[in-house]
């Protein structure tokens, strides 16, 4: 093999699995416009079929995350069987409390007990779905908060949030988990009820061992040292999952590694340092929308980006780094770090793929496969990802 990737690194890469989101295959957009794309899936089955293409060409994406109610079907058992036929499994179930008029002023935090009950019941329905799909994780992202100082009692909302989460957590079976995602703003602009990792941590710590934090890389203020948060959550044993994507400005949901590959590298260095790579407790997921680019190749590119930065992070010379640190040799430590980042691992990863019966060039193989032409011819009237629905 042409490269620096040792057998040990190659076998570590073997354990990498990246879950893809069903909503990446539907049409999505901004609040200005949702562009439709020929061949867009018309139902959850077609989303799974598209997601399976990503795994087929990369060997990296064996699971698909669902979103309820966007992916609600009459028979989840048959969706599960279909996924297995396609060579993937059903993964994390995402709840949705952001598209119902009742939730205008909150869901799990709402002042009105009736609305809170409705939001809790939605999560119980999601847990029922998880039993049918075989999913382990319930992921909760809450669009709750307020727009103006004085509008809400922030403290009382935290208390209600705890009570609601407790009721949901109590319904999980022993092998299921709750992961609570944080986001610093949007759709609320003054305060958000779960704005940061500390709040998510405080809430999940109060629930128990099977409640963890979900870190979405696009959900921090610009300039935030995300790898520090990764380190801390791993140190505390509370990093349950990643939603990978990249951003230039806000929650852009662009392809992971596209906006800032170096940040992705730094995050993966801390994942490896903290024992999170290939660890069953730490799920790697994408949370992306492909507004203008082709969706399946967009996902293929993304999982390849994660693998590429993982391989580079695995190249970090730990002994040289430790020696430089011990001497407080700042410049050498930084050079060792940058050497790993600047190493081109693409030829080695192409060989890694070929050794596994995959194409060296998954983007090219997908383009050649004829799948895209087939779905464009067959599917008329695809669905939106759900944002405008
Ligand atoms: C909204 O910000 C969001 O992007 C969250 O990151 C969720 O994970 C995702 O939507 C799906 O609900
Ligand atoms: Mn997310
Ligand atoms: Mn988001």
Automatic annotation (TrEMBL):
Keywords in alphabetical order: Isomerase, Manganese, Metal-binding
GO molecular function, one term: L-rhamnose isomerase activity
The enzyme's E.C. designation: 5.3.1.14
Keyword Cytoplasm: no
Keyword Cell membrane appears in the UniProt entry: no
InterPro entries reported for this sequence: L-rhamnose_isomerase (IPR050337), Rhamnose_iso-rel (IPR013457), Xyl_isomerase-like_sf (IPR036237)
Protein name: L-rhamnose isomerase
């Amino acid at each position: 093999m042409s490269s620096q990737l040792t057998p040990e690194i190659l076998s570590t890469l073997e354990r990498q699995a990246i879950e893809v989101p069903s909503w990446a295959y539907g049409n999505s957009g901004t609040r200005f416009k949702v562009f439709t794309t020929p061949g867009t899936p018309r139902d959850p089955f077609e989303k799974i079929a598209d997601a399976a293409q990503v795994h087929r060409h990369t060997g990296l994406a064996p699971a698909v995350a669902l979103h309820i109610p966007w992916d609600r079907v009459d028979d989840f058992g048959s969706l599960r069987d279909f996924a297995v036929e396609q060579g993937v499994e059903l993964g994390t179930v995402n709840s949705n409390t952001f598209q119902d008029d009742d939730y205008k002023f909150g869901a799990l935090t709402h002042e009105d007990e009736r609305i809170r009950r409705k939001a809790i019941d939605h999560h119980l329905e999601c847990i029922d779905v998880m039993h049918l799909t075989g999913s382990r994780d319930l992921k909760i992202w809450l669009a709750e908060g307020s727009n103006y100082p004085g509008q809400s009692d922030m403290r009382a909302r935290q208390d209600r949030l705890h009570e609601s989460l407790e009721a949901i957590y109590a319904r999980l079976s022993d092998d299921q988990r709750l992961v609570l995602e944080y986001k610093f703003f949007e759709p609320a602009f003054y305060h958000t009820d779960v704005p940061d990792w500390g709040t998510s941590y405080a809430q999940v710590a109060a629930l128990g061992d099977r409640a963890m934090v979900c870190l979405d890389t696009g959900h921090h203020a610009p300039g935030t040292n995300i790898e520090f948060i990764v380190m801390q959550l791993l140190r505390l044993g509370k990093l349950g999952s990643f939603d990978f994507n990249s951003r230039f400005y806000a929650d852009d949901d662009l392809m992971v590694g596209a906006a800032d590959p170096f940040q992705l590298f730094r995050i993966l260095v801390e994942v490896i340092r903290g024992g999170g790579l290939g660890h069953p407790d730490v799920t790697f997921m994408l949370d992306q929308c492909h507004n203008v680019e082709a969706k399946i190749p967009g996902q293929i590119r993304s999982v390849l980006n994660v693998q590429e930065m993982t391989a580079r992070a695995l190249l970090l010379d730990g002994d040289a780094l430790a020696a430089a640190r011990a001497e407080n040799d700042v410049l050498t430590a930084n050079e060792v770090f940058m050497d790993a980042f600047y190493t081109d691992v693409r030829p080695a990863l192409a060989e890694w793929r070929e050794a596994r019966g995959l194409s060296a060039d998954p983007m090219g193989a997908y383009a050649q496969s004829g799948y895209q032409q087939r779905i464009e011819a067959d599917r008329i009237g695809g669905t939106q990802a759900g944002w405008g629905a």
